[in-house]
Amino acid sequence: MTPTVPPPRTPLSQPSLEDRIAQWYETELGWATAAGARGLPVRLLTGLRFDVLELPADAGLAVLRRHAGLTGPAALMGRRMRLLVAAGSAEELPGLLDWLEWGGVALDLRALGAGGRMTAPSPPGWAGAQGAAVWLRPPEPRHEVEPTLPAFAGLGCRGETPDLVRLVGTAATECHRARLSRTNSAHANAQPLAFS
C-alpha cells in the first residue's frame, strides 16, 4: 500500500539577523549594503546616497550640541562618531580643511566616500549587540534622507541645515579642542605636584 500522507516538509531556513538588517536598509531607505560572512555586521556603502564624516565621539557630541539644528543622521561606533553628509562631500574635505586653514593641523577627522563602507547600526527600535554601532540621530524610513544632509552649498549660504563648510569648520575646531584636552590632561597627570 502506498502512503497517502506526504512526508514532512523540511522547514525553510529563517533569515539571519544580518540578512534582516540588510533588507531593512535596502527596502526602507534604499541604501546599498554589503553583507559579510554570517555573524559579521552589515556594512553600508558610502559614496552612493551619502558620505560620512568620522571623528572622535567627544568631538562629535560637541558638534551636535553646537549644531542643534543638524538634521542629518549621526551614529556612534565605540569611540567614533559618524555624521552622514551629502554624497560627494568626502572629496571636498581636504580642500575645505585647507580653505578653513586647518590643512596643516593633525585632526582626527576623516571622510568616507565612494568605495567606503560604514558599519550599519541596528535599525531604530531593534535590539543591537553590545558594542555594536547605534544611531544617535536615526534616518527616517520612508522619507528622503538625502535632501536633508549637509552639503556644499557655496560660501555664505544660510539654510535650514548647516552647510558642509560650517559643519566641517565646527568639526575641525572640536577635533582640535578634544585633542588638546586629551593632551593637556595626560601631561597634567604625568607631572608631580610641586610645592614651594
Automatic annotation (TrEMBL):
Q: Which domain of life is it from?
A: Bacteria
| Family annotation (InterPro entries) | SCO3374-like
Under the heading NCBIfam families, the entry gives: SCO3374_fam
What is the protein name for this chain?
Proline-rich protein
Organism whose genome encodes this protein:
Streptomyces chryseus
Q: What is the lineage of its organism?
A: Bacteria, Bacillati, Actinomycetota, Actinomycetes, Kitasatosporales
